[in-house]
């Protein structure tokens, strides 16, 4: 049998100004492991305004990136651009307000995205273009409306969408038409 196991980097970071010019990440590896061995990076209960691009550059084989409860407020087009193998991204309990165009464009393997319990009010029309997301969790945000333009790129891949308690008041007509794989659409506790 071949037994595979994730090699996790549990990262401490203090980056309240949102700097993105870091040149190194310090730390020690277990014997037989190196930066290329890291498949999971966890940043939990830290303090960073952004996800510095060096994280994905330093650990090119990240499959899962978790930035949870870390005061994250900004995502840029370079935040995840070097995480080409990224399959799972969890950005829960932060201060994100907008998910802009092409943030995830280089993440062609991204199938699970959790943005739960942020302050998101807007997801732009091109936020999910080219990304094969199957599981999307946007619960606990302040998204007043769901537009067809934003979610249409997910029509062939989306299986589960959790939008519980997201202050949704309007769902544009035809938003989820032709979503051939959609099994779970939870819009409970909204003002629809």
Characterize the structure shown:
The protein is mainly beta and 192 residues long. The strands form four sheets. An eight-stranded parallel beta sheet has the order 1-3-5-6-8-10-12-14, with no helix packed on it. A two-stranded parallel ribbon has the order 2-4. Strands 7-9 form a two-stranded parallel sheet. The radius of gyration is 17 Å and the shape is globular. The model has no long low-confidence stretch (mean pLDDT 94).
Note the main attributes of this structure.
single chain; two-stranded parallel sheet; mainly beta; 8-stranded parallel beta sheet; 192 residues
Quickly describe the structure.
By secondary structure, the protein is mainly beta. Helices cover 5% and strands 21% of the residues. The chain starts with 7 loop residues before the first strand and ends in a 6-residue tail after the last strand.
């Amino acid at each position: 049998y071949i037994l595979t196991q994730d090699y996790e980097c549990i990262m401490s970071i203090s980056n309240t100004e949102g700097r993105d010019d870091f040149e190194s990440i310090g730390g020690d590896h277990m014997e037989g492991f190196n930066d290329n061995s890291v498949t999971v990076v966890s940043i939990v209960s830290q303090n960073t305004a952004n996800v510095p691009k060096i994280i994905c550059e330093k650990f090119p084989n990240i499959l899962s990136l978790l930035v949870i409860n870390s005061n994250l407020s900004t995502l840029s087009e370079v935040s995840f651009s070097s995480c080409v193998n990224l399959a799972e991204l969890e950005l829960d309990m932060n201060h994100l307000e907008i998910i802009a165009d092409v943030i995830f464009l280089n993440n062609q393997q991204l199938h699970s995205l959790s943005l739960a319990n942020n302050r998101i009010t807007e997801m732009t029309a091109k936020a999910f273009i080219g990304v094969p997301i199957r599981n999307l969790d946007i619960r606990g945000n302040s998204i007043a409306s769901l537009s067809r333009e934003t979610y249409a790129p997910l029509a062939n891949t989306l299986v589960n969408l959790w939008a519980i308690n997201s202050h949704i008041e309007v769902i544009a007509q035809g938003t989820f038409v032709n979503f051939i794989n959609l099994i779970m659409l939870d819009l409970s506790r909204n003002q629809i």
